[in-house]
Amino acid sequence: MPTKQLTDVYVLGGNRIPFARSNGAYVDETNQSMLTAALDGLVARYGLAGQHLGEVAGGAVVKLARDHSLTREALLDTEIARSTPTVDIQQQCATGGQTVVHIADKIACGRIESGVACGADTTSDPPIGFGPRLRGRLVRLNAATSLGERLRLAAGLPLSLDFDVPSPAERRTDLVPGAAQAITGAAWGISREDQDAIALNSHGNLAAAYDDGFFDDLVTPFAGLTRDDNLRRGLTAERLAALTPCFGEDFTMTAANSTTLTDGASAVLLGTAEWASRRGLAPLARVVDAQSRAVDYVDGDPKTQGVLMAPVYAVSELLHRNGLTLQDFDFYEIHEAFASQVLSTLAAWNDAEFCREHLGRDAPMGEIDRSRLNVAGGSLATGHPFGATGGRITATLATLLAEKGSGRGLISICAGSGMAVTMILEAV
Description:
This protein is α+β, with helices and mostly antiparallel strands. The protein has helices at 31-46, 70-76, 95-108, 132-143, 147-155, 177-188, 192-211, 237-241, 273-278, 302-305, 310-322, 339-349, 352-358, 379-382, 389-404; strands spanning 9-16, 20-21, 55-58, 86-88, 114-121, 129-130, 163-164, 245-247, 253-254, 262-271, 285-294, 331-334, 408-415, 419-427. It is globular, with a radius of gyration of 22 Å.
């Protein structure tokens, strides 16, 4: 086959529904209803009704059995042409970011001209199932071919219900992300004051962005919400300092500087310049490159291989390949799974020994300008529906670059099981 030149890929727009705290405004909603709402808003905003798109990639982390074809079912409830194929992707908290990379790669290779990357998650509708003891007996009971066999198996059913309840704990370590990050943060000497400052900045920036109308073209109302209901206005350092710690033995991680369980959905429209021009759409930003990475959080040193430390390595590789330094960015969108994770990442990049021994660099990557970090609010303020965060971040950064009219931005998303996805966007 002849070698093809890669095609430039552009973020053309985004849409999401307001994010809601778990068991709140969206308690009666599902992954499908939320994802459909996010897609409907994108369709209305960018005139996609009846349009055949190259592909729609979506996903969710917390899925019921009925969600096995989540993205396809959501698409069928929209006005996007049903000839549009779909695919489901899952990579923990990096799910939304990986759907963007998937669609962008297909466009770059010339296989499609347009596509949508999307994702949703709800912890208000968890997949509570039967445990293996009861499930096995029920399966055998259902397969029984005679009344006698059914009665015998029914008599052997356990008297107590055997539920299989989902947990965020890692199967290999039995640690929930907050507990694992507490160990990593303590190893890096991350203070309570610095974590609270990240949280305070996140809420303040999100409130200001809403007040400035930044989200008018990015968020559509849903189920009675018009804005993220995790946003807290009027927070002060004193209020945050009074909160009781919830993770770790160093008493620095609280409910305010850790993300809360959240429900929501997001969608991002991507395409070539030609496809956008034919539809009168103005690209917001170009997708330059992306990098995934994983770390050995099972047997590795929690300081250097902590479960949420993979972005440190991914960004280093991404910048090296593109001939960039950490300071060559106008905006930094670092997913705030925990303020401690953000600060551990920044500390590692600025640590000479770590950069030399683990990143193969002769000098530390250095510091970033904190005034450029999550300038429209981060996950601590918006909340974090696992499959929707990547779409939120991508659309936010693309809009920031379009408003500025120049520059580039860096995306860094940590994920459970020691994984990450990172991206570079630049203004058109």
